[in-house]
Write a structure and sequence with these properties.
Elements (H helix, E strand, L loop, with lengths): L1 H14 L6 H26 L8 H17 L4 H23 L4 H20 L10 E2 L11 H24 L2 H11 L1 H6 L4 H27 L1 E2 L1 H4 L3 H13 L6 H15 L6 H16 L6 H14 L1
Antiparallel strand pairs: 1-2
């Protein structure tokens, strides 16, 4: 039954561009991109205990990689978007020798520093348009009437792909090693887990997924600037969505994104009051539901089991 419902929901999402208006399409696309980003951040942070405050750097890198690959190599945007994810993953691999010398909060801050350095370098690069940014040369690859539907379908594919990838990894032997490493590194080492190899894998995969989601986001924008692409506000949203939804839970990004957008859209007429609502929700959730909204199911099942016994 669950599989049938999921198939029907997926079919409805695929068909959305044929009956939804432009406003709904843009909102749906934004939600899907945030879900993809949250799944990507949740992989190292929620499952691997590798917290990062610099994933906005990968979002910007993915966006700029799309624009450069389209302009300089002439790649079709539908090819350049997954290529942008690969490029971002390779760049993440290049910085790991330095970053992986750091642990816990030092790693998180180190990632933020790296993202800021990348932003400054991009702003000073005339090749990348400097502080003024650059347009998407590959916009002509897609007919104008199909730009928005294509961007939406790409966002849907990215969100579903990130979710399926995380689900598959967590059901594999690799997922067991990752969780063991998160829970107790010494014990994990004793059973043959190679910490650096596992962390490296999830970090690069997370960066690649984040870069691809960033490329999808800026594909629809048709223009990219360093201030927007490397805005730390991306990380604030991702962290809120993941923590409120439930870190280390596949459903966490979906639940967190639902709460975030309900509050934002519901309080849209009240200016920045939605930020206060978000902060209040975060505090209450951490006090009442440390495991996030996804832990409500655990409490319900526990209560039901207790009543049956």
């Amino acid at each position: 039954m669950m599989r049938i419902l999921l198939a029907l929901a997926t079919a409805a999402l695929i068909a959305l561009p044929f009956f939804a208006d432009r406003g709904t399409m843009f909102l749906a696309m934004e939600i899907l991109v945030i879900i993809a980003l949250a799944q990507a951040w949740n992989l190292p942070a929620g499952y691997g205990g590798l917290l990062s405050l610099g994933h906005h750097g990968f979002i910007g890198l993915g966006g700029y990689a799309l624009y450069v690959l389209s302009r300089d190599l002439g790649l079709h945007v539908l090819v350049a978007i997954p290529a942008a994810g690969i490029v971002t993953g390779l760049l993440a691999l290049a910085i790991t020798p330095v970053l992986f010398r750091l642990r816990a909060v030092y790693f998180a801050v180190g990632m933020w520093v790296v993202a800021e350095i990348i932003r400054i370098l991009v702003m000073r690069s005339d090749w990348l348009g400097g502080a003024s940014g650059m347009p998407l040369a590959g916009a002509r690859d897609i007919p104008r009437a199909w730009m928005l539907p294509t961007a939406y379908w790409l966002a849907l594919a990215t969100a579903l792909g990130a979710t399926v990838l995380v689900w598959g990894l967590m059901r594999s032997d690799f997922g067991l090693r990752l969780k063991a490493l998160r829970d107790d590194e010494i014990a994990a080492r004793s059973i043959g887990v190679a910490p650096n190899r596992v962390r490296l894998t999830v970090f690069v995969l997370s960066a690649a997924m984040t870069g691809m989601a960033g490329a999808v986001s800026y594909f629809s924008a048709l223009f990219i600037t360093p201030l927007g692409a490397f805005d730390i506000g991306w990380v604030v949203i991702i962290v809120f969505v993941t923590i409120i939804g439930g870190m280390g839970r596949l459903s966490g990004p979906f639940l967190g994104a639902a709460l975030y957008f309900i509050l934002r859209e519901g309080l849209a007429d009240f200016g920045n009051w939605y930020l206060i609502a978000l902060g209040t929700s975060a505090v209450l959730a951490m006090l009442v539901l440390p495991g996030g909204l996804a832990s409500l199911g655990d409490r319900f099942n526990f209560s039901k089991t207790k009543e049956q016994s």
